[in-house]
Amino acid sequence: MVIHNPQEIERRSMEIIGEELARRLGGRPLDPLERPVIQRVIHTTADFDYLENLVFSEGAVEAGLAALQEGASILTDTEMAKAGINKSVLASLGGQVHCLMGEEETRRRAEAEGTTRAVASIERAADWQLPLVVAIGNAPTALLRLAELIEAGRMRPRLVIGVPVGFVNVLESKEAILRLPVPSIVARGRKGGSTVAAAICNALLYQLRR
Amino acid sequence: MVIHNPQEIERRSMEIIGEELARRLGGRPLDPLERPVIQRVIHTTADFDYLENLVFSEGAVEAGLAALQEGASILTDTEMAKAGINKSVLASLGGQVHCLMGEEETRRRAEAEGTTRAVASIERAADWQLPLVVAIGNAPTALLRLAELIEAGRMRPRLVIGVPVGFVNVLESKEAILRLPVPSIVARGRKGGSTVAAAICNALLYQLRR
């Protein structure tokens, strides 16, 4: 039977995910703040690997919720993630989504410093000194540079969502973030991507929807 | 060791994917036209399930390449897929990407017909009578309506990329497309999404890059 109502589709989807999670967890409890994030990522990917892959630093969800509640903006490394993040909920809290990858200033800076646009984007954001949730869904080099800037005390994101996808630099970049005392939500291993980055942001935003 | 050059990262990634595919295939050959599509989807998802999930109708890749070469446009159901499709290569061939989900006219039509915006988007596109590659990455109801319109002879897309993701209506919508004599690339099962839709479009476009 085909369900047509989008809200009903989402409700039924979350119910199916909940049942399948219960079966896989076999009584093991999920943190009540982490559960909506895990469920939304699985909703977005239909991939239950994320039940095991997603790693939350102590207090990461609280840190992200508090930051967004206070009007923090989101910086991401892909136009796709930017397109997927719920900008009206974010705006109602006072935040915006920034993706600097396509901007002329980023291109200029990358060229001047002999680096990539992904790295130049992060360096530009470090200059802002604004409260940020940083969501990396594509470029592990951006996540690595972010880790260096955090370690050097030049950047203090309120939350790092570290979910680049791929085969080169990806594992290293995620482990670099996990070693730091910064609130982080990371998809361990090769998987992740723009849809996962957006889903994690939205899972936080939907808990704050007014 | 961290590789910084984006082209070199992509080259090395494709090499790793090729090696892992060879191991999984154990001598089984891949169609040379389908291989780049499979590789790019795995590159985008880091998920080797797509080696088994992706189903190509006979001549589907040729049909998509010919359509894009002749200037066909791409219709998609998500802003994320639209953001991810390489619009400069598409434009160099004469095509554009359309996503009608956010347009006022779509909202009006959905309301007037008591349907969803996803379904109304497809119906609007049926009125155009333009050569289209239709790439559905999110809404199975859009894919189901597309199948009905094709069956009724009201729409003849040059290629259907059917990769909605999720838990409700998704399997049915993909099987509905697979039953029709339309060129199609479908991700069987629950998986798919905007990044997969965009990756399949880009895998075709990159073979036509001038």
Question: How would you describe this protein?
Answer:
- The structure is a homodimer of 210-residue chains.
- Chain A has 210 residues and is of the alpha/beta class.
- The first copy, chain A, has eleven helices and six strands.
- Chain A has helices at 6-25, 35-45, 49-53, 60-69, 79-84, 87-93, 104-113, 117-128, 140-151, 170-178, 194-208; strands at residues 54-56, 73-76, 97-99, 132-136, 159-162, 184-187.
- In chain A, strands 1-6-5-4-2-3 form a six-stranded mixed β-sheet, with helices on both faces.
- In chain A, helix 1 packs across helix 2 (35-45) and helix 9 (140-151) runs parallel beside helix 10 (170-178).
- The first copy, chain A, is globular, with a radius of gyration of 17 Å.
- The mean pLDDT of chain A is 96.
- The interface between A and B is large, with 43 and 43 residues.
Describe the secondary structure blueprint for this structure.
The structure is a homodimer of 210-residue chains.
Chain A: H1 6-25, H2 35-45, H3 49-53, E1 54-56, H4 60-69, E2 73-76, H5 79-84, H6 87-93, E3 97-99, H7 104-113, H8 117-128, E4 132-136, H9 140-151, E5 159-162, H10 170-178, E6 184-187, H11 194-208
Parallel strand pairs in A: 2-3, 2-4, 4-5, 5-6
Antiparallel strand pairs in A: 1-6
Helix pairs in contact in A: 1-2, 2-11, 4-11, 7-8, 8-9, 9-10
